[in-house]
Specification:
heterodimer; A: alpha+beta; 4-stranded mixed sheet; two-stranded antiparallel sheet; 3 helices; about 35% helix; B: alpha/beta; Glutaredoxin; 5-stranded mixed sheet; about 25% helix
């Protein structure tokens, strides 16, 4: 399983998001240190990484909340929580679902 | 440059998304909030700030200073569309196109809240409340500062750390 965590240091949400991602990984028996953490620090890098805001989290290449037509760039990312609130970090349940899906696919390989 | 508590705050007049000009002159006490369209922190706190504007008989001025070229969601046109889509706001949404107001105030983030006392000095600067993710906070720091200035006493706290997306300065 490949877990990627991309962040921009200009947005303050990444430490909490990384903590929550690692907690979800631990909960599901995945090594929390296995996450690949990468800083995105330029508009060019944001374009190359398809980075639509900080943080962007992908599990086996799939975004934990598909960004739709959001433009790439150095900004904080807007997430929608399951109760409808807007948040700078993804819903923890979305993180768990993405990890569970990858685990299930891994089992079927 | 950044304003300190007790400093006289600069007056300004800016184009409003709903039309015309609005701003800070002699209409104090007042609240100036630097905010924007694209930041999750600004969006999460938005309803709480508008609730304050509805609840108090004090001007609340929302100022978007972000570079609209690099961040098209913060262009004046996008601001106008947002206000129109909401059927109007209880506070003017103002465009700081040359970012001079944000620079004069030393705005750091969206949101960044400035409460101006009756004598035109800065009474509070910082976040609306302690947690963007907890609507029950109800912009408590902003409301507390407003109550203080209306009663002629110092705000407690007078300063908190603004939390949000950095202001998107033009290159």
């Amino acid at each position: 399983m490949r877990v990627e965590f991309l962040y921009w240091d200009g947005c303050p949400s990444h430490p909490q998001a990384l903590r929550e991602l690692r907690a979800a990984m631990s909960e599901l028996g995945i090594d929390p240190e296995a996450v690949a953490v990468r800083e995105v620090d330029s508009d060019d890098a944001a374009g190359a990484e398809r980075f639509t805001g900080s943080p962007t989290i992908r599990v086996d290449g799939a975004d934990v909340q598909e960004p739709g037509d959001e433009p790439t760039g150095l900004t904080c990312r807007v997430y929608h929580l399951r109760d409808g609130r807007i948040s700078p970090i993804p819903d923890p349940e979305d993180l768990r679902d993405a990890l569970r899906l990858a685990l299930t696919e891994q089992e079927h390989e | 440059m950044s304003l300190s508590i007790g400093d006289h705050v600069p007056a300004f007049s800016l184009p409003a998304a709903a039309g015309g000009l609005d701003g800070l002159g002699g209409n104090t006490p007042a609240v100036v909030v630097f905010t924007c369209n694209h930041c999750p922190y600004a969006l999460a706190w938005h309803d709480r700030i508008l609730d304050v504007a509805r609840d108090v008989d004090v001007p609340v001025l929302l100022v978007n200073p972000n570079d609209g070229e690099r961040y098209p969601r913060d262009s004046f046109e996008a601001m106008q569309q947002r206000v129109e889509a909401d059927g109007g706001w209880p506070a003017p949404y103002l465009r700081d196109e040359d970012q001079s107001v944000a620079r004069a105030y030393g705005a750091k983030t969206t949101p960044d809240v400035f409460v101006v006392a009756r004598d035109g000095t800065l009474a509070y600067r910082g976040a609306p409340d302690a947690d963007s993710q907890d609507p029950s906070q109800g912009a408590a720091w902003l409301r507390g500062a407003l109550e203080a200035v209306l009663e002629g006493r110092p705000a407690q706290p007078a300063e908190t750390e603004p939390v949000g997306c950095s202001v998107k300065w033009k290159a």
